[in-house]
Amino acid sequence: MRLSGVFAPIPTPFDESDRVDLVRLRKAIARWMTGPLTGLVVLGSNGEAVLIDDDEADRVITTAREAIPTDRPFIVGTGRESTQATVRATKRAADHGADAVLVRTPGFFKGQMTTDVFVRHYTTVADASPVPVLLYNFTALTGVNLPVAAVSRLATHPNIIGLKESGGDIATVSELVSSTPADFNVLAGSAATFYAALCVGAVGGVLALSAVLPEPCKRLFELTGAGCHDEALAMHRQLMPMARLLGSAYGVPGLKAALNLLGYDVGVPRPPLTPLPEAGVAALREALAQFEVIPA
Amino acid sequence: MRLSGVFAPIPTPFDESDRVDLVRLRKAIARWMTGPLTGLVVLGSNGEAVLIDDDEADRVITTAREAIPTDRPFIVGTGRESTQATVRATKRAADHGADAVLVRTPGFFKGQMTTDVFVRHYTTVADASPVPVLLYNFTALTGVNLPVAAVSRLATHPNIIGLKESGGDIATVSELVSSTPADFNVLAGSAATFYAALCVGAVGGVLALSAVLPEPCKRLFELTGAGCHDEALAMHRQLMPMARLLGSAYGVPGLKAALNLLGYDVGVPRPPLTPLPEAGVAALREALAQFEVIPA
Amino acid sequence: MRLSGVFAPIPTPFDESDRVDLVRLRKAIARWMTGPLTGLVVLGSNGEAVLIDDDEADRVITTAREAIPTDRPFIVGTGRESTQATVRATKRAADHGADAVLVRTPGFFKGQMTTDVFVRHYTTVADASPVPVLLYNFTALTGVNLPVAAVSRLATHPNIIGLKESGGDIATVSELVSSTPADFNVLAGSAATFYAALCVGAVGGVLALSAVLPEPCKRLFELTGAGCHDEALAMHRQLMPMARLLGSAYGVPGLKAALNLLGYDVGVPRPPLTPLPEAGVAALREALAQFEVIPA
Amino acid sequence: MRLSGVFAPIPTPFDESDRVDLVRLRKAIARWMTGPLTGLVVLGSNGEAVLIDDDEADRVITTAREAIPTDRPFIVGTGRESTQATVRATKRAADHGADAVLVRTPGFFKGQMTTDVFVRHYTTVADASPVPVLLYNFTALTGVNLPVAAVSRLATHPNIIGLKESGGDIATVSELVSSTPADFNVLAGSAATFYAALCVGAVGGVLALSAVLPEPCKRLFELTGAGCHDEALAMHRQLMPMARLLGSAYGVPGLKAALNLLGYDVGVPRPPLTPLPEAGVAALREALAQFEVIPA
User: Fold this and answer.
1) Predicted model pTM
2) C108 in contact with D at a CB cutoff of 8 Å?
């Protein structure tokens, strides 16, 4: 299974009563499916997965599956803190139609998360999973790091097909590519590092920005693949301000606010998260202006 | 509700098939109840709460409630990442007999966890909780800090009665005491800082070490309260090596290993956690030797 | 050599042309010498030692030596990045009258600063020093930590008499006391942790606050020594706000501003440091008001 | 002044008595000058500048100047903690023949190092410097970060011509390029990030690795410039293991050991640094083997 391209980690809409809103979800996916995105990720960190319970997750997956054509990879985030809960969530996601799962590192017991522990955890999950598994390292949020050495060992598992690396250290991305087999899918986890990651051998990205600006993100991917580095770099530079706003600056509230500006209607974040303050919305509006995507 | 004294955050026993073992739990609690502990905390971080699902949690709470006399405070950890899940867990804990709840800060979306967000989250939980609420700050595990300014604001809520602070910065503990009302219960979260925390005005501690060595921990508390600082300091020093081993060094696997050495029979940690390696067990055995508590 | 008591790490005055001002230095020391301070430290971090060249340092030491009676310990900061520069600075300080030297850890090459490297560095310095040596760990500024294990080994050197620990982790202070001989002088490095450090066995402190408020700091020390913990804790609490302002909040610019408010006339910080902004001066004035020390 | 290309930050040789060895320095430079390096940096962090006094620095600069042809840029590190010492060191370097200076951020008083403070410091230095100034950000060693906003403001100063950025976050490198004028020289500070930095618009690198392997590093630069990304990526990958060893892993002791293996004879590091342990030397020897550069 090759995961080359641009994947959007979409948010989960909530309604005014803090309930998952499947109608809004279906409509937003339908709109994304009119564009060039390679595939979608639901229930990732941008999907507020840690704020959603198992029943809600089932319904989100089922709804998304129906809305996504089978020729576009449909990936579901299923990482949990315990190995057994991760296995259960993975099986449920597969039962409900996931093409692959994206499994965030457990990270609560930081002192105990050694390379051996990670290898055992992911091996158990991959052994049990009916669908291919993507590793997921997001140190800035989890507080733990999945070492290159662990990835290198896990990459030989037949059911582990790739990794999303959300860190910005480009030498690490390069080492992840070098220390895994050629068909192992290393995916960039942030738009700000996407172009450089492609340069050092990543095959794609899971980019919040691509939910907001699918065409430019996909174009950046294609330009790089075609060896048009000057145009790719120009596109990268044009995208950087929005990439930064959606990344460390505004997070999930920023992603939802940007999508709402564009008419996607994805509602508000779930508490304790709060909607982006108006000053942030204004900054997003300004940064989006040059792309001529905001409806009049 | 005054929470002055020594509270043991007890582990959750699992059996050989990675299931919660209520029989072992009941027996272990019965043994603790023969000693001087002020009260117990179940489903805290040492209870591996993040690895346990809601149904298991209900059974742990019910079992513990039956085993703990009503004159000893029975506290249940109910912190979740979302506000609504925290409220639900809190209500269930109260329904199943908790005297108070200990609510860890949410921490996944680190960039968004401002003072205002924490105040809103805890206010919603405390408003909805049928039982008193304890705040819980454990920066080393959550990666976020509950600022003194947030605690100071929350301490005026009639249903928020105290805080467990697990950090070792003693000036912060002192400021927490100074910036909250006199009847607000500031509890130390680690045995290594317990004595100093009492010196600057904390009224007790939630100490993993006290599950292993209840008598010495309680004696340290009493000596300090009686103004016997020389004896208290001597007891503190005697406890430090074990405090360090159970704290940053060995974590939950260490706590379970130590208790098993003493005959408590609390089983193994839940994966991805693994049992303490033999070298660690040997170190615990040696550190425990001077207390003459290991059965022959 | 026993270093029990309260030591003020005094700032180095600069004049309007960014030159060391020895007249101001002499006058300020004379005023401190009318009070209860146990001794003084010059050219520590609060003395802006890293901003001062060797010739200036010689003149500061000579001037201070003349102004300090021989019955009060006169300590000079001589830590440098290279071992040989530290030895040279130490010998010069001794030649110019230092009673002891305070040697900050080297810290530029962070990856190489192992326990063995620290032990070798300090052993070389202590072997060569004509006067007793104090270790100095200030992780927040140097970015490296002098481990308890290194201190424990170095404490057996006949010419290493103690340690200034500027970190706030009280368990570490306790371990430093426990793992060194009874006559090894563990000194707290910040006023905010001073009282708790005394409780766990420190014998004194090197406190910027004590340059500003010598009497209350000395009183806190004496009350603790006399076992009057209630009064000591009350004094600690009264001092905390000023301790925080002079510590992490305002640094050297804050110390100079506070002293200038009290009429010490210690000039401005050396660039790149800048004088404390007026809002900070106002906060200091307000915090000092309750001590009735500001001249009318 | 355009600084496009590959610059080697060379080490400073010390003899068996811990003295600067100018004979070894001259010989090593002569050998480097037979190769393709664009220019040299002396007294940078790899030159152990923080371990060297001012008189030694003068002699190193004079000796290097004589050994380096005037058509290759000769850059001298002159960053100090105080602004006035930095100005003095900069003027001395210019007097002794430096073509440009590389000025590391001051970093001791971490809490006070704001954007405004950095702008004032560098402006004063650049105003006073007879030669062009390069900014230098090395957060991993200094513990402070020179923000993009500060660089953007400083880049308009007519005497500030560029920046060495040693961090590995590629999005930051990209932003540094985007937020400075087209003729501002952004240089990568580590070989592990060099190729990706070139991809996002850096014009060259100051690479410890290029002292050891000048030809491959220069070739990587030229391939990228020529748009031969496949060959460039292959060269990058071949260089990564050595880049990692010389970077975070072994530091200055590693650089000296590698050069000694190749016959450069640069002596040992200055204490407290110690020579690389034999296991490290063996790892370097193995990593160098594929380049066929070690003399038989």
Assistant:
1) 0.97
2) yes
Residue A186: CB atoms within 10 A of its CB come to 27
pLDDT score of D294 more than 80: no
What's D247's DSSP letter? I
Task: Using a threshold of 3 CB pairs under 8 A, tell whether chains D and C touch.
Answer: yes
Cα–Cα dist D271/D51, whole Å:
8
SS3 D120: helix
Per residue in D69-115, pLDDT tens? 999 999 999 999 999 999 999 999 999 999 999 999 999 999 999 99
Helix axes C22-32, C54-67, angle to 10 degrees: 40
Q: Is A271 on the interface with B (CB under 8 A)?
A: yes
* Identity of the residue in D84, D252, D272 whose CB atom sits nearest the CB atom of C117: D272
Specify the DSSP element, H or E, that contains D39. strand D39-42
- Average pLDDT for residues B127-150, to the nearest whole number? 98
* Closest CA relative to residue B128, chosen from B175, B181, B78, B81: B78
3-state DSSP helix/strand/coil % of chain B, to nearest 5: 50, 15, 35
Using the Cβ of C170 and the Cβ atoms of chain B, whether some distance falls under 8 Å is answered with: yes
Let me know: does C208 contact C249? Beta carbons within 8 Å: no
Calpha distance C92→A17 (Å, rounded): 73
Nearest CA in chain C to D122: C272
Q: In angstroms, rounded to a whole number, what is the distance separating the alpha carbons of residues B125 and B128? A: 5
Contact call for residues C250 and C281 (beta carbons, < 8 A)? no
Report the amino acid identity of residue D22: L
Look-up of token digits 């117990």: B40
Q: Which two tokens stand for residue A6?
A: 């641009």
Q: How far apart are CA B274 and CA B268, in angstroms?
A: 7
CA distance linking residue C137 with residue C163, whole number of Å: 8
Q: Bridge partners of C100?
A: C75
Distances (CA, A) of A190 to A196, A217, A232, A240, A241: 11, 11, 16, 11, 13
D112 to chain C: which residues are within 8 Å by CB? Answer: 251-253, 272-274
What single DSSP character describes residue B240? H
For residue A292, the model assigns a pLDDT of 77
Which residues touch C46 (CB under 8 Å, ≥6 apart)? Answer: C9, C10, C11, C208, C211, C252, C255
End-to-end CA distance of chain D: 41
Given phi > 0 = left and psi -120 to 50 = alpha, else beta, which region is D64? alpha
How many CB atoms within 10 Å of residue D206?
A: 31
Which positions ≥6 away from A197 have C-beta within 8 Å?
A: A165, A170, A173, A186, A188, A205, D170
3-state secondary structure of D277: coil
SS3 at position C137:
strand
Percent residues over pLDDT 90 in chain D: 96
Q: What is the pLDDT of residue C1?
A: 84
Give DSSP secondary structure letters for A70-105.
TTS-EEEE---SSHHHHHHHHHHHHHTT-SEEEEEP
Angle separating helix axes B191-199 and B229-244, nearest 10 degrees: 150
Neighboring chain B residues of A252 at a CB cutoff of 8 Å: 109, 112
**According to the model, what pLDDT value does residue B249 have?**
85
> How far is the first Cα of chain B from the last one, in angstroms, to the nearest whole number?
41
* ipTM of the prediction: 0.97
Tokens (6 digits) for D104: 């590391």
> Is A27 a catalytic site residue?
no
Angle at B128 between CA B125 and CA B130, to 5 degrees: 110
Contact map slice: D 26-85 vs C, CB within 8 A: 45, 50-53, 81-85
For residue D44, the SS3 value is coil
Q: What angle do CA A241, A243, A247 make, to 5 degrees?
A: 120
Question: Which tokens is C74 given?
Answer: 């006169």
Q: B272: cis peptide before it, omega within 30°? A: yes
Q: Which of C140, C257, C135, C122 is nearest to C190 (CA)?
A: C140
